[in-house]
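for the recovery benchmark. tokens below, seq after
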């Protein structure tokens, strides 16, 4: 069944990785712990997607059910869990299996709500909101409607706090009226976090106090621990580091889930790092890394690798910094071939690793140029230039999707832009790197600050200079290899100085 026609345009489908890089079912069910399965199971019952008299006690077993509804909803729930854990390859793999099932209309709606969370994590906010707004116009299931309203609210938490509060208070009113405290507490927490973003700390404290009270009155320990984490972060935002630290240390004395324990350790690491106590930051992030690596919680995993690399770099332990940067990069390579945006700590890790390598080599320009221009081997100039221009243009599109602003930055008109778009075979959802090369990606970042013509001139000048040394400064051989005229090579390399 093609579910994309229900809420999603073909443009959004282009954002998905190809099926040949997705995972088989037996891999997708790994690294999902029991509490997460139990929460999703209860959630499915409350949404009236499956009645309680039907068997859904173990999502990891029900994915193989002959009943398409049970199987499809189970795969959707697993996709939601992997989204939360930051395992995007597993999430897309689970959702792709769910796409093939014959789901009810409410089941399809549930699938797209969970999918919107994944798109939002990857910074496709507009696409995610489009899905949710279509759901509001279409679904009659009041619980699913208010789930979509909740997700709309959280999608605006950082970008538009007033809009976030509009949706979140709407959802809060509904779930309070039906006494669904499992849903109510997280919404109150999100309202509190939105107030933190607005620096309205008293309002945030009121929200967290109420969330704590509801959690304790209803024995919702999982939510209580999350509330304590939020209160700790409120004190971090206010600069009360010692108070926040004590909250997180106390939190670690409870029987926490792997996610909650790692989050508390990372927040302790954050406090230590901000106070420039890098050895303490290393201690906390090392403890967290053991959890995030074992549980394969990849969003948090890359934060640990990044902070460990940076902290060791600060105290001058370059070998250990290199160890954690390079180990994190090896993990990152597993995701690059998905063609997804590198966001958050994934991008920070990649950028800092390249800068670190350059700063800690005796002759970094020579060594890094070999790696930057590795993709040019056995290619002629037209192919090299097309790849470069395509990559650079998409790098700009990632930063500035508005066409007018983009053209202003690049220094040409819209007609020229659309001509390049056609010439370079660009379509929505393309990513800058078609090769696993962080050095080239960092190089693109350095050129993205220049207008289009200047960036291209710099690239061609540096390319010819590098390739000339590869061909032992034989300009005729270089011209033949690149498929260009000898005169062009002479012109492009006129300022190249031959080292004696």
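predicted aa per position
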């Amino acid at each position: 069944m093609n579910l994309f026609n229900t809420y999603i345009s073909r443009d959004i489908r282009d954002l998905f990785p190809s099926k040949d890089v997705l995972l088989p079912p037996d891999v997708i069910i790994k690294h999902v712990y029991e509490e997460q399965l139990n929460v999703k199971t209860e959630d499915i019952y409350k949404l009236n997607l499956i009645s309680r008299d039907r068997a859904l006690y173990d999502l990891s077993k029900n994915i193989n059910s002959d009943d398409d509804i049970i199987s499809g909803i189970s795969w959707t729930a697993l996709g939601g869990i992997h989204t939360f854990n930051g395992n995007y390859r597993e999430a897309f793999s689970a959702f792709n299996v769910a796409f093939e099932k014959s789901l009810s209309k409410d089941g399809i709606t549930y699938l797209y709500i969970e999918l919107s969370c994944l798109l939002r994590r990857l910074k496709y906010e507009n696409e995610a909101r489009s899905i949710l707004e279509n759901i509001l116009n279409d679904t009659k299931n009041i619980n699913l409607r208010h789930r979509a309203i909740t997700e709309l609210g959280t999608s605006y938490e950082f970008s538009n706090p007033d809009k976030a509060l509009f949706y979140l208070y709407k959802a809060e009113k509904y779930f309070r009226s039906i006494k669904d405290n499992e849903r109510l507490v997280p919404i109150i927490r999100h309202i509190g976090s939105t107030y933190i973003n607005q620096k309205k700390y008293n309002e945030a404290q009121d929200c967290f106090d109420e969330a704590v009270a509801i959690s304790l009155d209803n024995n919702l320990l999982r939510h209580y621990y999350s509330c304590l984490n939020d209160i700790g972060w409120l004190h971090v935002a206010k600069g009360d580091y010692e108070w926040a630290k004590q909250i997180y240390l106390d939190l670690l004395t409870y029987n926490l889930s792997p996610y909650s324990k790692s989050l508390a350790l990372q927040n302790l690491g954050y406090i230590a790092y901000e106070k420039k106590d890098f050895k303490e930051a290393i201690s906390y992030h090392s403890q967290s890394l053991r959890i995030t690596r074992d549980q394969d919680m990849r969003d948090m995993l890359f934060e640990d690798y990044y902070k460990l690399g940076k902290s060791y770099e600060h105290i001058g332990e370059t070998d250990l910094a290199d160890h954690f940067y390079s180990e994190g990069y090896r993990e990152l390579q597993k995701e690059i071939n998905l063609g997804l945006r590198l966001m958050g700590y994934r991008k920070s890790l990649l950028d800092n690793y390249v800068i670190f390598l350059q700063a800690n080599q005796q002759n970094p320009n020579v060594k890094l140029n070999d790696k930057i221009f590795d993709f040019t081997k056995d290619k002629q100039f037209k192919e090299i230039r097309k790849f470069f221009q395509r990559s650079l243009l998409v790098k700009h599109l990632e930063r500035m999707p508005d066409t007018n602003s983009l053209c202003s930055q690049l220094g040409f008109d819209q007609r020229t832009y659309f001509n390049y778009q056609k010439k370079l075979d660009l379509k929505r959802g393309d990513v800058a790197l078609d090769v696993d090369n962080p050095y080239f990606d960092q190089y693109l970042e350095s050129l993205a600050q220049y207008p289009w013509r200047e960036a291209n001139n710099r690239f061609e000048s540096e390319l010819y200079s590098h390739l000339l040394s590869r061909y032992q400064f034989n300009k005729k051989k270089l011209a033949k290899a690149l498929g260009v005229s000898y005169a062009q090579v002479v012109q492009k390399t006129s300022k190249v100085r031959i080292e004696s």
